[in-house]
Amino acid sequence: MSSPLAARRLEIHAAARRDPAGFVRIDPASVRFHLGTSLADFAVPIRIAPDARAVFQGAAAEIALLLGTQHPFVPEDDRDRLIVHEDYARLPAVEPLYGPSTGGPDLRGAAQLASLVHPALTGGIVTAWLGRGGRGNGLVTLLIALWRRAFEEMAETGEREATPLLVALAVSAELQAAEAGLRDLLPGPPLDRYLRGAAQGALWIAVRTGLARAWRDAGRRAGDPLLLRIEAALAPGPLLGGRAGVAAGGATLYGCDLSPGIPHAEDVVARLAQGGDPEAAQSDLVQALGADDDLARRAEHAVAVSALRELLGSAIAAAEAAGDPHIEPLRTLFCAPGALGTAVAGDEERKALARDLAK
User: Fold this and answer.
1) Model pLDDT for residues 181-222, shown as the tens digit of each residue
2) Comparing C-alpha atoms, which of 119, 126, 131, 143 is closest to residue 197?
3) In Å, how far are 5, 19, 244, 246, 336 from 193, measured between CA atoms?
4) Which one, of 111, 104, 63, lies nearest residue 313 by Cα?
5) Which region holds residue 80: left if phi is over 0, alpha if psi is between -120 and 50, else beta?
6) How far is residue 195's CA from residue 139's CA, in Å, rounded to a whole number?
7) What is the per-residue DSSP string for 270-310?
8) To 5 degrees, how large is the angle CA 104–CA 107–CA 109?
9) Across residues 239-267, what is the average pLDDT?
10) Which of 119, 74, 121 is CA-nearest to residue 100?
11) Is 37's pLDDT higher than 80?
């Protein structure tokens, strides 16, 4: 399955391969202020103000509560526990929609992207969180302001200092710190890992939205190499917990579900990190899948479910636009962990799904 987000990661990887050392290196001579006297102890001092840190933490907490209280597949006991949380009364209202419910181009674009990142990120939830009154909106506003100032400071240095990249590194660290405190704001196992993955995906969408707006306002061109470096610093993989976190958390931003596993994954990653040929790695993976019938079947099933999910999402969006009041079961089927895969696991299940869709 193709994925525009995965394709963009490949573009970044290709740029890094052309000049590995230069792509990741920050020249100490280009930075206005730094600590250390050699490359080994080089560090750039950055202070995150307490009020800014509170914005990150508040946005993370709110999206976690929204996910845990708005989905019908969350057990009632878990919802009851989350509803008594002190922040629940301040949650923005959520429309039960798969697609975006309102807003301008940036907000609607973020809501449409959400379901590509994680099935549990409905347009209604993301629109409420990123819209006016949502703490996600406050986070995006802060990020836009940070990067606007960074572009101004970079211009003051004659573009010698890549200030927006320094901001991106600080933002990445702050997001991971904020996400670490979500345990008490999510349902219990096993849903906690699934909805944590959705919350992490939402935070990444907020960062992507803020960066895109600030980049556009600064009049920067889309092909600017600096953008690739910033996006590399803001890679969604580490925020989602790495390869294991992406697979266990249900994220679909790279296309299909990756839980079937990647054969010889550690070896493939190591070779690519050392400058190995991506096409050779792809060929090796195809051969490994062909040699393992069970893994091949699971991979084929994941790809088929991904294709069906894409079609189902389009159908739900069309039904919502037509005002169909009977599509809540289909939204739940789309969003619930493992539900769509179970619905097509066997002939009887597929026939039952076909009947439900016909209705």
Assistant:
1) 888 899 999 999 999 999 999 999 999 999 999 999 999 998
2) 119
3) 22, 36, 11, 10, 13
4) 111
5) alpha
6) 20
7) HHHHTT--HHHHHHHHHHHHHT-HHHHHHHHHHHHHHHHHH
8) 100
9) 81
10) 121
11) no
84: three-class secondary structure by DSSP:
coil
Residues in a beta bridge with 35: 43
**Token pair for residue 343?**
């619905």
Query: Which residues on neighbouring strands pair with residue 43, listed in sequence order?
Result: 35
CA distance 294 to 292: 6
Closest CA to 166 of 357, 9, 26: 26
Residue 5 has pLDDT above 90, yes or no: no
The tens digit of pLDDT for each residue in 54-76 reads 999 999 999 999 999 999 999 99
DSSP state of 183: G
Q: Are 301 and 341 in contact (CB under 8 A)?
A: yes
What's the rounded Cα separation, in Å, for the pair 353 and 91? 34
Q: State how far the Cα of 118 lies from the Cα of 113, in Å rounded to an integer.
A: 9
Alpha-helical runs (H) found in 84-221: 105-117, 123-130, 135-156, 163-179, 191-217
Place of tokens 């302001």: 145
pTM given for the model: 0.91
Cβ contacts of residue 313 below 8 Å, gap of 6+?
Answer: 98, 115, 334
Q: State pLDDT tens for residues 310-356.
A: 889 988 988 888 888 888 888 999 999 999 989 988 889 889 888 87
Between 257 and 223, the more confident residue is 223
* Residue appearing with tokens 């002939």: 347
Residue 63 contacts residue 136 (beta carbons within 8 Å): yes
Residue 263 is encoded by which pair of tokens? 């054969």
The average pLDDT across 126-149 equals 96
